[in-house]
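Batch manifest, entry 17 of 40.
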Amino acid sequence: MLPNKRKATEAILATPNKKPRIPSYKPSKSSIPTSMRDQPTTYPWDSYQDAIVVNSVEFSDMQQRVGAEHYSYMLSCQKHYKHICVGFDEYRYNGLKIEDLPELDDNDDDEEQDLVQQENLDPTINTTRPPDPPPSHYAYPHPIYQATTSNPAIPLAILRIAQKNLSSISFDSAIAHLPNLAHADPLPKLTSNISPEDIKYKNRDNAIRLNVAFLPEFYNDGRHALGYYTLSQASSSNSSPMNARRRMVGACLFTPCTIRDLEVYNLVKFMYGRKHHGVEGIKSVGVRQGRWVEKDVVEDWDEWSLMVKVVGRVWQVRLLLLMGGQEDGNTAVDDWV
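Output type: structure tokens
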């Protein structure tokens, strides 16, 4: 005989489970090992969030707990986890309390907006589609300025120029993942009276060294190419004989730009201050301690050719894919140069 409804209901509601007290762990900076504080990556306890969800189905004491209640219970019973983030903001900021994060200057957005307003957009330039590069690297005749940097302010300035000159593409993700900047760090403060190279930054032990390149009059509409990229050497264990002497392009971003764009963001230095010489009077772009690489100098040919291929082939293919182009025989991703 089936039990009556009253007794069944009483059996279920008579002894409700007591909700466990969830520990509220809010680490301060002092509780984080020194070796981990400045790492531009996630902290080890971030992976425990997934581990708790996966392990929760492997415990036997779960018949009376389901959904959010069961998840909360599992948070409280994992005694072997030293650090547990129980709040979204705490997890988002790698275990740091929000009040421990660097203070943001409320004037940052206003100052960057002032820079944007200084950009005089040429009405004859179409920013909704990328300009065309030279048909081949042999057809490009100009020297290229090359430098390296770890300062995140320089790629940020380049990205700001890209937002103007490639207006149909969103660079929000690239700005959110700026090289050599931790997730919780504020963006460098770009101003109209200081070069991005002179903006102070934290020099990390595992900082990425970016190659910065400026290619004068690279595009068919007369604009220059400016950007950054990383290279890695092919290892003998995972590369084909054809790629044994080649290098692979990692991070890569280039944008068309004008001399005015470079001036607005303080990325250009002229010889003897003579701006009227145009490209011919440029001493450096982005980073002062760089050099001009000549096409017709034998010792420079390999590096000169490599940079033209990075911008004219590797970046061009990535740009087409970013704009929704389908990968085919003509747009296959080939990052070897």
